[in-house]
Amino acid sequence: MQKKLHIKKGDTVVVITGNNKGQKGRVLEVITKTSRAIVEGVNLMKKHTKPNAESPQGGIVEKEAPVHISNLMLVDPKSGEQTRIGRRLDEKGKLVRFSKKSGEEIK
Question: Considering the domain 1-49+58-75 in this protein, what is its CATH number?
């Protein structure tokens, strides 16, 4: 069974602890098996690549490494600050995520 995580692909998040503390970025991918997420521009690592068809030069490529989900917090769509997430039913009876700070629904 898959874990229910508070972060989805496309969310804007802020890193709350670690070497990249305070950095904001968009979630590119969520890895549910290991509870990690790849965030745009956060936790960059250098990867040495051999020359191949798509990069004939080879060299060093900077790439985002996964960050544990417990180190990420969603950004409130209204204020732009970090916020906790709640779940509630909307008027159609569908479960939606909302910001605990502003009460606004998160798309």
Answer: 2.30.30.30
Give the residue from 99, 29, 12 showing the smallest Cα distance to 67: 29
pLDDT digits (tens, 9 = 90+) for 34-68: 999 999 999 999 999 999 998 899 999 999 999 99
Residue bearing tokens 């990249």? 20
- Those residues with Cβ within 8 angstroms of residue 106's Cβ, 6 or more apart along the chain or in another chain: 11, 74, 77, 85, 96, 97, 98, 99
Angle at 46 between CA 41 and CA 49, to 5 degrees: 125
Nearest to 9 by CA among 32, 34, 41: 32
pLDDT confidence bin for 8, thresholds 50/70/90: very high
